[in-house]
Amino acid sequence: MKIENSTSQDIEEIFRLYRLATEFQKTRFTVHWPEFDRTMVETEIAEKRQWKIIIDNQVACVWATTFDDPQIWEEKNADPAVYIHRIATNPVFRGNSLVERIVESAKEYARLHQKRFVRLDTVGNNPGLIAYYTKCGFDFLGLLKLKSTAGLPAHYDNATVSLFEIDLEGASPVVNNKEHTR
Predict the structure, then answer these.
(1) 14: helix, strand or coil
(2) What is the DSSP letter of 34?
(3) Range of the domain at 175
Protein backbone atom coordinates (compact mmCIF):
# COMPACT_ATOMS: atom_id res chain seq x y z
CA MET A 1 0.00 0.00 0.00
CA LYS A 2 1.24 3.46 -0.81
CA ILE A 3 -0.18 6.97 -0.56
CA GLU A 4 0.66 9.49 -3.24
CA ASN A 5 -0.72 12.45 -5.09
CA SER A 6 -3.21 11.73 -7.84
CA THR A 7 -2.18 12.65 -11.37
CA SER A 8 -4.11 13.78 -14.42
CA GLN A 9 -4.05 10.13 -15.58
CA ASP A 10 -6.23 9.29 -12.54
CA ILE A 11 -9.09 11.65 -13.35
CA GLU A 12 -11.40 9.06 -14.90
CA GLU A 13 -10.83 6.69 -11.99
CA ILE A 14 -11.46 9.51 -9.48
CA PHE A 15 -14.81 10.25 -11.10
CA ARG A 16 -15.65 6.55 -11.31
CA LEU A 17 -15.05 6.26 -7.56
CA TYR A 18 -17.14 9.39 -6.93
CA ARG A 19 -20.02 7.84 -8.93
CA LEU A 20 -19.74 4.56 -7.00
CA ALA A 21 -19.65 6.45 -3.69
CA THR A 22 -22.73 8.44 -4.68
CA GLU A 23 -24.61 5.27 -5.61
CA PHE A 24 -23.66 3.76 -2.25
CA GLN A 25 -24.78 6.94 -0.44
CA LYS A 26 -28.17 6.76 -2.18
CA THR A 27 -28.75 3.33 -0.61
CA ARG A 28 -28.05 4.58 2.92
CA PHE A 29 -28.55 8.34 3.23
CA THR A 30 -30.97 11.03 2.13
CA VAL A 31 -28.14 13.40 1.21
CA HIS A 32 -25.65 12.26 -1.39
CA TRP A 33 -22.90 13.76 -3.48
CA PRO A 34 -23.72 15.65 -6.65
CA GLU A 35 -21.62 15.29 -9.76
CA PHE A 36 -18.46 17.22 -8.95
CA ASP A 37 -16.92 19.84 -11.19
CA ARG A 38 -14.12 18.38 -13.29
CA THR A 39 -12.20 21.67 -13.26
CA MET A 40 -12.23 21.66 -9.45
CA VAL A 41 -10.65 18.18 -9.39
CA GLU A 42 -8.15 19.08 -12.13
CA THR A 43 -7.10 22.10 -10.04
CA GLU A 44 -6.70 19.92 -6.95
CA ILE A 45 -4.49 17.55 -8.95
CA ALA A 46 -2.38 20.40 -10.33
CA GLU A 47 -2.00 21.85 -6.80
CA LYS A 48 -1.13 18.40 -5.39
CA ARG A 49 -4.20 18.40 -3.11
CA GLN A 50 -5.84 15.27 -4.59
CA TRP A 51 -4.57 12.00 -3.11
CA LYS A 52 -4.85 8.26 -3.67
CA ILE A 53 -4.06 5.02 -1.93
CA ILE A 54 -2.62 2.37 -4.24
CA ILE A 55 -2.98 -1.32 -3.35
CA ASP A 56 -1.90 -4.04 -5.78
CA ASN A 57 -1.50 -1.43 -8.54
CA GLN A 58 -5.14 -0.34 -8.16
CA VAL A 59 -6.55 2.92 -6.84
CA ALA A 60 -8.14 1.85 -3.56
CA CYS A 61 -9.27 5.24 -2.34
CA VAL A 62 -9.14 8.95 -3.23
CA TRP A 63 -9.60 12.18 -1.28
CA ALA A 64 -8.73 15.85 -1.40
CA THR A 65 -7.11 18.21 1.07
CA THR A 66 -6.96 21.94 1.56
CA PHE A 67 -5.56 24.37 4.13
CA ASP A 68 -8.59 26.66 3.85
CA ASP A 69 -12.31 25.94 4.37
CA PRO A 70 -13.96 29.21 5.49
CA GLN A 71 -17.57 28.56 4.49
CA ILE A 72 -17.78 25.43 6.58
CA TRP A 73 -15.42 26.26 9.45
CA GLU A 74 -16.21 30.00 9.65
CA GLU A 75 -13.99 31.74 12.25
CA LYS A 76 -12.23 28.44 13.10
CA ASN A 77 -10.81 28.58 9.56
CA ALA A 78 -8.18 30.93 10.99
CA ASP A 79 -6.74 27.97 12.91
CA PRO A 80 -3.80 26.17 11.27
CA ALA A 81 -5.51 23.09 9.83
CA VAL A 82 -5.58 20.50 7.07
CA TYR A 83 -9.12 19.79 5.84
CA ILE A 84 -10.02 16.43 4.29
CA HIS A 85 -12.76 16.25 1.65
CA ARG A 86 -14.51 13.67 -0.54
CA ILE A 87 -13.11 10.35 0.62
CA ALA A 88 -14.22 7.79 -1.97
CA THR A 89 -13.24 4.14 -1.58
CA ASN A 90 -13.11 1.56 -4.32
CA PRO A 91 -15.73 -1.04 -3.25
CA VAL A 92 -13.15 -3.81 -3.79
CA PHE A 93 -11.15 -2.34 -0.89
CA ARG A 94 -13.90 -1.52 1.62
CA GLY A 95 -13.22 -2.87 5.09
CA ASN A 96 -9.45 -2.31 4.89
CA SER A 97 -9.33 0.59 7.40
CA LEU A 98 -8.39 3.03 4.64
CA VAL A 99 -9.81 6.05 6.47
CA GLU A 100 -7.53 5.25 9.40
CA ARG A 101 -4.61 5.26 6.97
CA ILE A 102 -5.78 8.59 5.53
CA VAL A 103 -5.96 10.01 9.05
CA GLU A 104 -2.41 8.92 9.86
CA SER A 105 -1.17 10.37 6.57
CA ALA A 106 -3.09 13.62 7.17
CA LYS A 107 -1.58 13.96 10.65
CA GLU A 108 1.90 13.55 9.22
CA TYR A 109 1.09 16.01 6.41
CA ALA A 110 -0.29 18.54 8.92
CA ARG A 111 2.85 18.35 11.06
CA LEU A 112 5.03 18.75 7.97
CA HIS A 113 3.13 21.95 7.13
CA GLN A 114 3.02 23.24 10.73
CA LYS A 115 -0.74 22.72 11.11
CA ARG A 116 -2.28 21.95 14.48
CA PHE A 117 -5.57 20.39 13.34
CA VAL A 118 -6.84 17.75 10.95
CA ARG A 119 -10.50 18.37 10.17
CA LEU A 120 -13.34 17.03 8.12
CA ASP A 121 -17.07 17.46 7.80
CA THR A 122 -20.03 15.45 6.62
CA VAL A 123 -23.47 16.64 5.64
CA GLY A 124 -26.21 15.84 8.12
CA ASN A 125 -26.52 14.13 11.47
CA ASN A 126 -25.49 10.55 10.72
CA PRO A 127 -24.88 8.62 13.97
CA GLY A 128 -23.17 5.73 12.15
CA LEU A 129 -20.73 8.01 10.37
CA ILE A 130 -20.15 10.02 13.54
CA ALA A 131 -19.24 6.80 15.37
CA TYR A 132 -16.98 5.72 12.51
CA TYR A 133 -15.03 8.98 12.34
CA THR A 134 -14.62 9.09 16.13
CA LYS A 135 -13.32 5.49 15.95
CA CYS A 136 -10.78 6.78 13.41
CA GLY A 137 -9.50 9.32 15.95
CA PHE A 138 -11.60 12.42 15.34
CA ASP A 139 -13.44 14.34 18.02
CA PHE A 140 -17.02 15.09 17.02
CA LEU A 141 -17.51 18.83 17.56
CA GLY A 142 -21.23 18.90 16.85
CA LEU A 143 -23.57 20.13 14.14
CA LEU A 144 -23.47 23.46 12.35
CA LYS A 145 -26.12 24.98 10.09
CA LEU A 146 -24.18 26.50 7.18
CA LYS A 147 -24.79 30.19 6.60
CA SER A 148 -23.31 30.67 3.13
CA THR A 149 -22.87 27.87 0.61
CA ALA A 150 -22.23 29.85 -2.57
CA GLY A 151 -19.47 28.11 -4.51
CA LEU A 152 -19.68 24.88 -2.50
CA PRO A 153 -20.83 21.61 -4.11
CA ALA A 154 -24.63 21.24 -4.28
CA HIS A 155 -24.99 18.80 -1.38
CA TYR A 156 -24.08 21.67 0.98
CA ASP A 157 -27.10 23.79 -0.05
CA ASN A 158 -29.20 24.56 3.03
CA ALA A 159 -27.23 21.92 4.93
CA THR A 160 -26.34 21.15 8.49
CA VAL A 161 -22.91 19.59 8.76
CA SER A 162 -21.22 17.37 11.33
CA LEU A 163 -17.79 18.74 12.22
CA PHE A 164 -14.81 16.58 13.19
CA GLU A 165 -11.32 17.46 14.36
CA ILE A 166 -8.06 16.00 15.58
CA ASP A 167 -5.98 18.36 17.68
CA LEU A 168 -2.36 17.36 17.17
CA GLU A 169 -1.39 19.15 20.37
CA GLY A 170 -3.67 16.84 22.32
CA ALA A 171 -6.29 19.22 23.66
CA SER A 172 -9.60 17.42 23.30
CA PRO A 173 -12.67 19.61 22.73
CA VAL A 174 -15.95 19.12 24.51
CA VAL A 175 -18.19 16.83 22.48
CA ASN A 176 -21.50 18.45 21.65
CA ASN A 177 -24.20 16.38 19.98
CA LYS A 178 -26.64 19.26 19.70
CA GLU A 179 -26.98 21.59 16.77
CA HIS A 180 -25.28 24.90 17.40
CA THR A 181 -24.10 27.99 15.66
CA ARG A 182 -20.78 29.61 16.19
Answers:
(1) helix
(2) -
(3) 2-180
Q: Count CB-CB contacts under 10 A for residue 5.
A: 13
Q: How far apart are CA 147 and CA 159, in angstroms?
A: 9
Provide the domain count of the chain: 1
Distance, C-alpha 112 to centroid of its chain: 19
Residue-wise pLDDT tens for the chain (182 aa)?
A: 999 999 999 999 999 999 999 998 888 877 788 889 999 999 999 999 999 999 999 999 999 999 999 999 999 999 999 999 999 999 999 999 999 999 999 999 999 999 999 999 999 888 989 999 999 999 999 999 999 888 888 888 888 999 999 999 975 444 444 443 33
User: How many other C-beta atoms lie within 10 A of the C-beta of residue 6?
Assistant: 21
Tell me, what CATH number does 145's domain have? 3.40.630.30
CB 165 within 8 A of CB 171: no
Q: Helix (H, G, I), strand (E, B), or coil: what is residue 111? A: helix
CA distance 9 to 89: 18
Q: What is the DSSP string of 113-133?
A: TT--EEEEEEES--HHHHHHH
